[in-house]
Amino acid sequence: MVTLAKKEIQGLILRGYSNLPNAIYLLLQITNVENAKKWLAEIGDQITDGDTKPRENAMNIAFTLEGMKKLGLSKNALKTFSGEFEEGMSTEHKQLMFGDYGKSDPKNWAWGGPHCPEVHVMLMLYTDTNERLETFKKVVIERINAAGITILEKIDTCRPDNEKEHFGFKDGISQPFLAELSEKGPADDPIAIGEFILGYKNEYGQYTDSPSILPSEDPANLFPVEPETNNKDFGANGSYLVFRQLGQDVKAFWDFAYENSKDKNGNYIHEEAVKLASKMVGRWPSGTSLVDSPEKDDPSMCDKNDFLYHTQDPQGLGCPYGAHVRRNHPRDCLEGIPKESSFITRKHRLLRRGRSFGAPVAKSMNPQDILKTNDTAPSGARGLNFICFNADLARQFEFIQNIWINNPKFQSLTDELDPLVANPLGRGNNNETNSFSIQEKPFRKRLQNLPMFVHTMGGAYFFMPSISAVKYLAS
Amino acid sequence: MMNVQDGLTLLFDTREDKLQDLIQLLNKLSENIEANDLMPFGKMKKIHFARWVMMDATHDVDGNPIPAHLLFESDYDGDEAEHINEMLDVGLPGFIKIFRTCKGFPEKENVTREEVLVFINSHNAPKTGLFIGAWGRSVEQIKQEKELYYAVEDYLDANREALITKSPLEIRNKVREYVWSKDEFAWSKVPPGKRSFKQNFQYYGYLAFLVCCAIILLPFLLIMVITALIMLRRREMKEPATDHHLDKSKVSLLQKHEKFNLQNQFSAVGNIKPGTFRLRFLKKTLWMINRVSRYVFNKGKLATIPSIHFARWVFLDDHKRLIFISNYDGTSDQYLTDFVNKQPAPMSAIFCHMMDFPKTKWLVLEGARDMKGFVAWARKKQIPSQVWYSAYKDITVKNIIANTNVRMGLYGSISDKKAQQWLNLL
C-alpha cells in the first residue's frame, strides 16, 4: 500500500460523493483565454480535493485535450498524453470499437460529436440538498458568464434513493477494492492504485505513461520528476476520465422481457419477465448475483460481491455466459482457467463515478409499474451519465468496450453481444446476428434480434488533473 | 488421411524504380482481395491466410545495408507444389505484374508460367518455427463445419417446444436425423480424415525417436542447457536497459490496418543480436517450438493463448533478421496484452535474441513481463501488411475447434451424459 497525495488528487477520484446526491455537469467552451485563466485561478482554490470528505458541496474539474491546448499547455506537453486520448471517442476507429452506429453514431450526438462545438472543460458540481445545488449553480454560472465562457451543455443528474439505475437494477456494486481508500475493507487482494491514478505503480508494477512537461516549463516546481525521462510529471495525481452519456429505453427493455417470457396462452408472467431481465443483466433487481441465488431474487445477499463465476457456475446455468455483468467483469471465468482469469481481469478494471439522469418511468422502479405506465417521454429523456476513471484508456475502458462488450465471439459465444448495453448493429457490418443464449438443461434458450436498449447520446475523453495541475493551467 | 497444413514464405528484393507501381498494385489487390482479376484469393481453395508485406531497406547490426524486400506468406493445405500451382492457375497475371517490380525477374514481354514458377522457387525462404491453432483442418472443412454448426443451432431454435421435453440423447439423435437428411450436409455422415497408417507411423515414430534421443542424451543435454544458460546470463548482464518509449503515431497507423476486429494479422521483423551464440540459441528454440506445437500444443492453444490461427518465425537476410508472422483473433492490442498476461516466459525465450527486446534474466525471467517495454518493442518491430487475406474472416480458433466438436458428436452411439455434454457446446 502506498501513501496517496490526497490533497493533490481531486475528490471525485477518491469518493463517489454518495452523501451529495444532487449534481450537475457543465460543459464549457473557452473563448477569451485570458479571462478563462483568471476564472480558473479563482475556482482553482475551491476544487474539492481528496483529503477531506465534503459535507455540503463539492466541485471538480476536468479538461479535454482541446481545452488544455486552448489554455496554452505547450505543444510538446500535449503530445505526451496517451494516443487514445488524443484520438478521442468519435473517430471511425473508435466507432468500430464501441459500436457507435445508427442511433449511436457520433454524427447524431448532442455533444462531443464531430459536428458539435468543441468541449473544453467539464465542471462538476455536487451538493447535499437540491436547494443548495440551485444556489451553488447560480453563483458558479454567474462567474462563468462573467468570464465570457460559453456553457454548451448543462447535464442534469439524478440519484434515486434505492440506488437503482433506470432499468430497475441496483447499480455500482462492484467497484475495484483499493486498499488506500479503505478504512478496513475486505481482506481481498487490492487493485494497485496506479490503475486509476497516474504517478503510482499499476498492476504490472510499472508507472503508466503520464503526460509530462519539460523541467524548464515548471519553474514553480509543482510536479514530481519522471525517473525515465527526467521530465516533470504533469499527470501525477490525475486520471483519464471517460464520459459517455447513454440513453436508456426502459420500456423497450421491459416489453422485451415480458414478450419473451409469456406462457403458452400468451399471458404475461411477472416473475418470468423479471427472471429473464435478470438473466440479461446477470444480477437480480436487488443486486444479488444470479450465481449466489440462481432461482429467485434474494435481497439479503444484495451487497455480497465476492462470488466467482467459473468456480460456482461453470456452465452458466445461473448467470449466463453472455450476461452483462459476466462480460464486463468476468472474474475467474475467462478461458476456464480461474487463476489466470482472475490475474487478467485485474488489469481491466474501472473506477465508476457516473450517475443517472432523467425521471424514472415509474417512481417505484418496479417492472410491473413500468409496464403499466404510459410513458410519453422522448427517447433520450433518461439514462446513465457513464463516467469512469482509468490510467490507461486502451487497456482499461477501450478494452472492456471492444473485447468484452462488443465482441460477438466473447469466450465461447458466437454472434452475441452484451444483451443490455451493446448496439445490436454490432460493428456496423450487418452480417452479425445479435442473439442472447441462456444456458439451460437440456439445451440453451436463445433469444434472437435483441433491440437496442441503450444508445450513445454524447461523449468525450477528459483528463482530471491534480490540484496543482489545475493551478498550472490557470497560470 | 488427415489434412496437413504448412506455411510458405517468399522473399524478393524490390526495385526502387518500380516502387510506386508496386504500391498501386498492392492497393488494387487489397481493394477487392477475394475477387480482383489479378490475383483473386477467393478462388484459391487451399489458402487459409495470405499476405503481401513491403519491407523498407534498413541496416543489419553491423551497419551493413539490407535492401528493401517484398514478402509473400501463405498458410495452406496439402502439398507445397500443388499450392503454388493453384495460385498460378488463378493468379498468374498478378504474380507477373508484381514480380516485374522485383529484382531478378526476366525483363521481357512474355514470361512463361514455368519462368514464374522458377522465380518463386528460387525465392522460397526455408521453413523454421510453425504453430497451428486448428491442427489438421482444411479450409473446406472449416467452412463446412461452420455451416453445420449454424444449422444445428437454428434447428434447436425452430424445434425448441418439441425437443425440450426429450432426453439429451433423443435430442442429439433428432438433430442428427435432421442434419443427415439434408443434401448439403451429406459430407458430415463421414467423420473427418484421421491420420493414415503412414502418417501415424511418421507422427508417433518421430515422437518415439525424440523421446529415445532425449533419454539417451539426457545427461549431455542437461550439461548443454546449463552451460548455455550460464553463457546467456553473462551476455544478459552486459546488455543495456531498453527503451520504453512507445511511438504513438506508428501505433495509430498500424491500427488503421485493423479493420475487422474479429481477426487480424501481425508481422514483426528485426535484427538478431550479434554473434553466433544468440543465433544458435534461437535456432534451437525454434526447432523446439516446432516439436512442442506438434506434440503438445496441438489443440487450439499455444500454451494458454487460444487465439492464434497460424504463427511462424522465418529467418531473413542470411540469418541476420527474424520475422514473426501470425494470424490471430481480436486486435493487436489484445494480442500483445495476452502475451504479457498469459505467457511472458516463452515470449522472452523466443524473442530475447532480437535487438532491443526488454532485458531478460536467465532467459525467461523479466523480459516480456515488462509490459511497457514489451509493447514498445513489439510496436517498434511491427510492420503493416499491404495485402491481407483470410479465407474465413468471421470465425475464431475457438469457433473452429467447437464446430468440429459439434460435428464429432454426431457419430456413433453415445451415452445420455455425453449427449448432454455435446448439447452444452451449443
From TrEMBL, chain A:
Q: Which UniProt keywords apply?
A: Iron, Metal-binding, Oxidoreductase, Peroxidase
CC cofactor: heme b
State a single Gene Ontology molecular function: peroxidase activity
- Record's superkingdom? Bacteria
Give Gene Ontology CC terms: cytosol
Q: What is this protein called?
A: Peroxidase
The species is Segetibacter aerophilus
Automatic annotation (TrEMBL), chain B:
Entry keywords, A to Z: Membrane, Transmembrane, Transmembrane helix
| Membrane-spanning intervals of the chain | 203-232
Q: Which domain of life is it from?
A: Bacteria
Quote the protein name from its UniProt record. Uncharacterized protein
